[in-house]
Write a structure and sequence with these properties.
- The structure is a homodimer of 214-residue chains.
- Chain A has 214 residues and is mostly helical.
- The radius of gyration of chain A is 20 Å and the shape is globular.
- Chain A starts with a helix and ends in an 11-residue tail after the last helix.
- The first copy, chain A, has one domain: Tetracycline Repressor, domain 2, CATH 1.10.357.10.
- Chain A is built from 10 helices and no strands.
- Chains A and B meet through helix 6, helix 7, helix 8, helix 9 and helix 10 of A and helix 7, helix 8, helix 9, helix 10 and helix 11 of B.
- The structure holds a DNA duplex (30 and 30 nucleotides).
Amino acid sequence: MADKREHILIVAEQLFGERGFDGTSVRDIAQTAGVNLAMISYYFGSKEKLLEAMINFRSEYAYGILAELNKDQSLSPWDKVDRLVEFYVDRILNNLPFHNIMYQESTAFRSIDIKDKIIDLKMRNLDQITRIITDGQQKKLFRQVDIPMTVGTIMGTISSYTQSRAYSCNILAIREDSDDEVFRTKLSKRLKAHLKQLLRAHLDIRNDTGPMEK
Amino acid sequence: MADKREHILIVAEQLFGERGFDGTSVRDIAQTAGVNLAMISYYFGSKEKLLEAMINFRSEYAYGILAELNKDQSLSPWDKVDRLVEFYVDRILNNLPFHNIMYQESTAFRSIDIKDKIIDLKMRNLDQITRIITDGQQKKLFRQVDIPMTVGTIMGTISSYTQSRAYSCNILAIREDSDDEVFRTKLSKRLKAHLKQLLRAHLDIRNDTGPMEK
DNA sequence: TTGAATTAAACAAACGTTTAATTGATTTTT
DNA sequence: AAAAATCAATTAAACGTTTGTTTAATTCAA
């Protein structure tokens, strides 16, 4: 085992993601990770600090890519939106356990530290997406929309299908015990296609609301 | 206290909604409800069956209204979509604790009974909304969209803002300790406006995707 | 030999649930 | 009408686990 500390983090991520923070005991983690119970206190101090360490561990890598997307001058705003959708769907689907934890922990307020970290993460997301959309607006391609709500739509749509595997499999018309890869592939395609179509219509300046046909 | 059993259910709903199922002890519930600890086993059998009873208790009332909306012949599909948005935003915002529980419990699989109940609830929602949208499609007002994904968008957008009060208050530009009513009113307005605008663009047959301006 | 890594064992507290006794009102019997 | 019986409602206490954390001893490499 190369890095025992990291190994514990990954095992804990899996379990927290499946059973929730309160639904997972430190004994569960220790046993699954194949380490002694006391090692968790030894490395992290407490169960709660383990969660905090996990958020730090996973947050770092997420920042770079979106910022890069924004810098790329060669991409049109429309291309950027498509890339954005692909980026988020891929990132969430490839990190389902962690996403589930963030998802659950943003409701529960475990500690001020953790709460602030999660809000910080969300704010950065919002900030990056805001730049992409305002850029499109300045170039007269996108219409005026409620940007924070639009971000909620993107994240919320994805979450609503990562949250309940049973329901999702039902919709995707695959067996509930299907391979994880099959599940992700099917869901990824479906989500990306939907979100792209949705955002094209939502953002396009030519779709600014005229009178409705009755 | 008129109906002690119901009173326990309501208190438990509050606590589960705030702290999660695993984060709430039966002693918490008993103390907050002002009843003896043993009464919870006496009335419900177990903590898990209390949750099940709660889902039954809350599920019943939800069905009627949407079905009625579908029957109403005088409303155009566009009107129905607007009503739909208003119905869902209101219902969720007026039942935040229960919504949070459903939200959390659809990830955790507490028991097969509970899982099935939640899926059943979701399926009924999907079914009702499907009727509204296919109706609009048959009348050549709505274009072809991925209906289950669109439902996910509606529910997910709302959830993404009911899930984390701290973040939402940040976006709504109100203080985090604002009155509950203030929070709901502001969020309701914002969500309804956004979702209506979004769905108008998304569903309108005139917005069927032509080539994008570059 | 020093100090970090690892262990089994123990800790007190909290957990969900059960027990056995008691209350209080309603029904049945005298 | 009074007494007895019945049964659901309620209680304090205890049950056996499980919880997160700590201790003190031991291993192991530097």
